[in-house]
Every structure is written in structure tokens, then in C-alpha cells.
Amino acid sequence: MARWEGNARGRLERAALDLFTEQGYDRTTVAQIARRANLTERSFYRWFADKRDVLFAEDDLESALVSAIDAVPAGTAALPTLLAAFAAAPGVFRPRAFLKERAAVIAANRPLRERELMKLAALSETLSTALRERGHDQQTARLAADVGMAVLRLAAERWVADEHADFAKVLESSAADLIAVAAEGAPG
Fold this sequence. Notes:
The chain is built from 10 helices and no strands. By secondary structure, it is mainly alpha-helical.
């Protein structure tokens, strides 16, 4: 093993994703990930609790969104506040290729899909709390957070799928699509 190579965390993430893609999540071990990254298992556990954590380790998205919400001018309605905050998201996203491979690994494994849903629900709750702290009532904050998360997921999927897509534009079109769908179902 090399005495020292930088970016151990990144190497472990890359090795894990490569192995998950090549041989499947269930058939990949921590030992294999560490070996592929040219590190020890002990090094792996310095960064991650388990192999699942490689896909779901905390990133800066949540704190970046909360900070972006705080930066939106007071008095802005709940959903426009979230959409303005979401515009800051690409600054903390991982590279598109990584996100695309990650999504494929998660889609192929039911427990990972469940974990992804739990992570998204936790993010939605954090956003709802941030909106309540800005003075929005609980119902408005909750509904805006849930609707906003639907827009963010769609925008992120579109952005990852098209390497030339501009996140601000796909966010805007995803919000417009949501508004169009909601208007179709609105009681007359």
C-alpha cells in the first residue's frame, strides 16, 4: 500500500461506487472497498460507519440549503423561498457522473431506496423547520417543504441526466411543471 495518497474519503467513495456497479451492493465488502482504494479497513471506518454510509454520508447540501433560506429576503412566501435556496444547491452537489452512478446503485437495491427516502424525508423536515423559523405557519411550511422537495428531486434528476443542463433552468422548468400539474387538479 502507498504510504500516503491524498483524498482518502474520495478514493473510498470512488472505489465503493465502482465495486457496487461492477458486482452489486450486496456482494461488495468493506475489505474490497478499502483494498480498491489502496487503504486499510481501519481507514475506511475513520470515514464511514459501514458500506451503506458511503452512499448516504452527510454532505453539505442540508446546511447549504438552510443558509440559503436564511439569505432570502424576509417576507418572501414559503415556496419561492425554497426555490431561491435550491438555486444554491449545485455549489455543493457531487459531480454528475458520481450522482448518476449512485442513483443506479440505489435504484437496484430496495433497502438503499428506503434509506434514500428516509434521507429525503429528513431533509424535507429540516426545510420545514427553517421555514417555520422564518415565521411561516406549520401547515404552510410543511406543504411548501414537501412540494419543494418534489421540485428539487425532479430538477436534480433532469440535471444529472443531461450533462449540458443548467441547474437554474431545470429548476425553473421543474417548478413550472409542478404548477401546471397542480393547476390541472385544482377544484374549479
